[in-house]
């Protein structure tokens, strides 16, 4: 009977340690990808979980060393974004099946705002992915609705 209790105890300890590891791994290790848009190769972070999508680029001092962040969604919808705890302006680009369906250029930070006062940036049509890039990127690269983004490597 003592061996069974020891096994349960050790199993519980291992389970807790794995859970703690996974908790911190998700917060500090972000998946990455390389995408192509307007003949530019972009190295981006992937916000592929609810935590990462909520966190986004907030709290960072810049996008560097990456070119941006991509937010894939499993369902079509008009995915709204706010500048919660952002320290730099960005361009927000909404895509559907890899095609640009809308974008908000040069979205400015909103310091000293609370959740109810942030401006909500929403596309005009459904999307399944959002790409955040440094402010001015869309204008500098003459981004247009209908432009295609492709995955170069995972």
What does this structure look like?
The chain has 154 residues and is of the alpha+beta class. The chain has two domains: 30 residues; 123 residues, Protein of unknown function DUF192 (Jelly Rolls, Sandwich), CATH 2.60.120.1140. The chain is built from three helices and seven strands. It has a seven-stranded mixed beta sheet with strand order 5-4-6-3-2-1-7. A hairpin with a 2-residue loop joins β4 and β5. The chain is globular. The mean pLDDT is 89. It comes from Candidatus Magasanikbacteria bacterium CG10_big_fil_rev_8_21_14_0_10_36_16.
Succession of helices and strands: HEEHEEEEHE
Radius of gyration: 19 Å
What is the number of domains?
2
Question: How many strand units?
Answer: 7
CA-based shape: globular
Biggest β-sheet strands, sense, barrel: 7 strands, mixed
Continuous helix count:
3
Q: Determine the CATH superfamily of the largest domain.
A: Protein of unknown function DUF192
Structural class: alpha+beta
* CATH architecture assignment of the largest domain: Sandwich
In what range is the share of β-strand residues? 25-35%
Write out the strand line-up for the largest beta sheet, numbering strands in chain order: 5-4-6-3-2-1-7
What distance lies between the first and last C-alpha atoms, to the nearest angstrom? 49 Å
Quaternary structure state of the chains depicted: single chain
Share in helix: 10-25%
